[in-house]
Automatic annotation (TrEMBL):
<feature type="domain" description="Flavodoxin-like">
    <location>
        <begin position="44"/>
        <end position="233"/>
    </location>
</feature>
<dbReference type="InterPro" id="IPR029039">
    <property type="entry name" value="Flavoprotein-like_sf"/>
</dbReference>
<dbReference type="InterPro" id="IPR010089">
    <property type="entry name" value="Flavoprotein_WrbA-like"/>
</dbReference>
<dbReference type="Pfam" id="PF03358">
    <property type="entry name" value="FMN_red"/>
</dbReference>
<feature type="compositionally biased region" description="Polar residues">
    <location>
        <begin position="26"/>
        <end position="36"/>
    </location>
</feature>
<protein>
    <recommendedName>
        <fullName>NAD(P)H dehydrogenase (quinone)</fullName>
        <ecNumber>1.6.5.2</ecNumber>
    </recommendedName>
</protein>
<dbReference type="InterPro" id="IPR005025">
    <property type="entry name" value="FMN_Rdtase-like_dom"/>
</dbReference>
<dbReference type="InterPro" id="IPR008254">
    <property type="entry name" value="Flavodoxin/NO_synth"/>
</dbReference>
<comment type="similarity">
    <text>Belongs to the WrbA family.</text>
</comment>
<feature type="region of interest" description="Disordered">
    <location>
        <begin position="1"/>
        <end position="36"/>
    </location>
</feature>
<dbReference type="GO" id="GO:0003955">
    <property type="term" value="F:NAD(P)H dehydrogenase (quinone) activity"/>
</dbReference>
Length: 243
């Protein structure tokens, strides 16, 4: 400012305004839906022991129920036999179907998203072959690798009072120590759970079959209940996987 001259504009040139170029943000991929990978289905292991084929019959029908649910795949396994061939022959046990493999290692359980375990009763508890398999899962228990995985049971008994409920009920301890989630079927089968006009195995704990002296085959109602349990468990696995 000069003396009494008011404001005199500066002769210095003002810098040109800086042009800011805004880059376009990358397109968001959060709203894009990935196509499901058919080779990435959730795996439900159906693991069973069957001496005369009754539990195996339920397992096969159960697999049909699981495989009917999109995105879930059932895999059948046997547990290792603990009896010798001579003893099995004396008990008139038929040969095992070799198309269903024996599960290779207890460590394989960690690959599954859920389980259905099937076994015949022995005095109201699971058969020794299945118990021996559970006893071999100590390392999985130590590391709690099965914690949070859902599991259910299906059984075979000789008589109506032979353990359709207690055989499954006493097996829950195996799941509890592994931190697994027991999934019963309740009465989700609907009206079929209340029918009294024919002999039917199964309970709110899971599907079941009456074997009698070994010659009785599973009824269509018993097989239908097994198929329902497969579908039900597959739906539970999908629900848990969505988190």
């Amino acid at each position: 400012m000069g003396k009494g001259g008011g404001c005199v504009p500066s002769k210095k040139k003002l810098p040109k305004p800086t042009t800011i170029v805004h880059e376009s943000p990358p397109e968001s991929t959060s709203n894009t839906t990935a196509r499901p990978d058919p080779n990435n289905n959730l795996k439900l292991f159906i693991i069973f022991y069957s001496m005369y084929g009754h539990v195996e019959g339920l397992a096969r029908r159960m697999k049909m129920g699981v495989d009917a649910v999109d995105g879930v795949e059932a895999v059948l396994f046997r547990v290792p036999e603990t009896l010798s061939d001579d003893v099995l022959a004396q008990m008139r046990a038929p040969p095992k179907d070799e198309s269903i493999p024996v599960i290779g290692s207890p460590e394989d359980l960690a690959l599954a998203d859920g389980f259905l375990f099937g076994f015949p009763t022995r005095y109201g508890c699971m058969a020794a072959q299945m118990k021996a398999f559970f006893d071999s899962t100590g390392q999985l228990w130590r590391e709690q690798k099965l914690s949070g995985k859902p599991a259910g049971f299906f059984v075979s008994t000789g008589t109506q009072g032979g353990g359709q409920e207690t055989t499954a009920w006493t097996a829950i301890t195996q799941l509890a120590h592994h931190g697994m989630l027991f999934v019963p079927i309740g009465y989700t089968f609907g009206a079929g759970m209340f029918k009294m006009d024919s002999i039917r195995g199964g309970s709110p704990y899971g599907a079941g079959v009456f074997a009698g002296d070994g010659t009785r085959e599973a009824s269509e109602m018993e097989l239908a209940l097994a198929e329902h349990q497969g579908k039900y468990m597959a739906a539970i696995i999908k629900k848990l996987a969505r988190g």
